[in-house]
Amino acid sequence: MRWMLHKLLPLLVLSCLLTGCWDRVELNDRAVILGWGMDKEQDGQYLASAMIFIPQSNNNNSDGDLASLSKHFEVFTGKGRSIMEAANQIQPKLSRTIFAGNRRMIVIGESMARDGLSNILDEYSRNKDVRLRTDMIIVEKGTALSLLKMVYPLEDSPATGALKIHENTGGLADKAMVYFLQAINDPGKSPTLPQLSLSSKEQSQKQEMQMTGIAVFDNNLKMKYKLNVDETHSFFWLTKKINKFSITVPIKEKGVINVDMHRLSSKIAVKLVDGKPQFEVKLKGDVMIVENETALHLDQMEDFRKVKEALNLKCKTDMEAFLHHIQQEKTDVVGFNGYIHRKYPRTWRKMEPTWGPDFAHASIKVQANMTLRQIGLTGTSIENEEDPD
Amino acid sequence: MKLTRTQMMWLVFCINVGLPIYLSGTMNVTKQDAWFSVILAGAAGFIVLALAVRNAKYFPGQTFIEFTQEVLGKWVGRFWVLPYLAFWMISLGNILRSVVDFIIMALFKETPLTAVVIVLFVVVAFAVATNGINTIARCAELMGPLIVLMFLCIYILNLSNLDFTFLLPVAADTSPLNMARGTFTMMEMYGDSYLLVMVFGFLNKQKGVTPKIYVGFTLAVGLMVLTTTFILLTFGPGLAAKMQYPLYELVRYIEVGEFLQRIEVVMIALWVCSAFIKLGFYLFCLSYGTAQWLGIKKWKLLIIPISLLAIWAAGLTTSLLTTRALLLRYIDPVILPLLYFILPVILWIMILLHRRKNQKVQTGVVPTIPKASMGWKWSGVTLLILMLSMYYYMYIRYFKV
Q1: Which ipTM score applies to this complex?
Q2: Which of A70, A234, B73, B74 is such that its CA lies 20 to 30 A from the CA of A154?
């Protein structure tokens, strides 16, 4: 008896106390959200859509039938005058408790983005289930609901599809939200989010999605304008988020050359001249020629130099066009303010309040110095060999 | 109860490695230079620790309660330790609450706070009741290396997320005043070192223990500096300052490939272990100290009332952040420097004078005075005083903030 009391009783009591099963929710009772969409309707109401995983055995669908694949997911929506009201409309439609811990993708309709994101961001950073590693995208001229509802053939869900498209075009997709929050917390820098657009394929109901650029927000988190694909490339190059892409280089009176650029690097230097910042952007990278549509003989020094000059010019003008655009809009998406802040912290304190307009007048010089590493397997273009030009 | 020197080292490490919630307050003020405030706070903590060692090392086998009475006389000594006991009681409630807040945030959403508090504290009280400081110190010896390992893993796995521009410009945006404010926010964390005066007497060998204590402390501060730096480098000062638990977010952010992610549960487990050691250490110091103060031989009897007080105190505060605001405004600027710096310095001078006087009479041997027994009715008075001090604290909490 004594033994029981001294050894067994504490054991029993502690085993009751230490299990901690109060909050357990069985997997069978969870509705796992994989993607989340926010839209603003015409009538001013908000529409929240949740893409929820439908658990079922995978065995029957191993043939990759699209119709059955899409059944893994279901999109539920809620409507309301405020964002929380809309989100709260979803739970009553579900037999299981919402679990947002696996949410990897937040999709936002363009109308919502133009209306402002400050309301919705709070929940996304306060909710303790939600992780910071989340991708956020804007649907250009469309709704988040339409993206979540579409059938994407390559991946198991359109949310995953959009995430991977983002990954392929702009590097670190799951850090989109962190980058966004960091830009918000950096006064002077304008936050950005990637943009996708949906387009209908001809002769069928199916839709396609495509990366179309970057949406730029102002300091009130309202979407202001968008950067196109070329500008996006320049933007990623300058912020070191991408290290390879392909461009087409026009060569004076000769045609075009297609090149792959990789190992891209950029350097921004700043100096103050009469209290005004002057930036110098240096671009570097390795270039591989993949297609030569001109009659240039790439194995000859003179033509080789011509190509190189054209290439540098193209990189430079592209970058300048991008910089000109963001300067016109008075949005410093790259974070030029950070370069002044780091080098001239004392001067920056005076410049900080008026950085938006000041940025528009800052002088930025671009230098491109690309290295032609490979000209491909043939020296001269085969089909143009007999061309008299 | 005997402590080895290694146990002492890990004990110091575990109580100082701390609950990294204090970081966001510092980052709000000092931005990208927060790591330097942590170093400064560590230096301040080092002074507190050195004072604790200076105070206690001349009295082997004696605790704070005993040697103050010997040095300052019976009654002055008694009143000398009273504010310490009251403040430790408040701190115990606060630490308990912050630990439970974290556990609830991370793991349990619908469990009532009281349930988690009671469950956690029953375990702590059980550990203290079995073998006192020995249980706690052995736990520290066991868990300390694992905690170091955990921190190293966090650093290594996070290497790919770092952006070194976040640390720049160094020391340009922070004025000395702001740096001092940021440091002050951190300092509360390292005030705990002074509790060593309660357990220093239990060492089996005093020789060579001081360097080991300093090593333990430096290790804890070093890890905290690295952690702060990593948080800044990963999230940037602006975003990190808005996080309530930046270290937790840092661990959640780890993702290596597609397979190594969501390792925060491991971190929570080790974190609760370090909290357990800290709580146990406080509980032991309080119950043993109060028992000695009252002259009660069976100190374990006091574990239950003190545990109840702590559980009650933990339930009182509404939220951690509001408590922090209060601490910053009233307790940190006045009570901390007084209890952990000014009084210890005075005590140290008194000890030196006392030793000089005694050495003239008899050579080096410190006489022990018989303990006065104050009996059971005094225990009620003590608990009343402790409760009153906490009432006062709550009064400030609810009506003045």
Answers
A1: 0.83
A2: A234
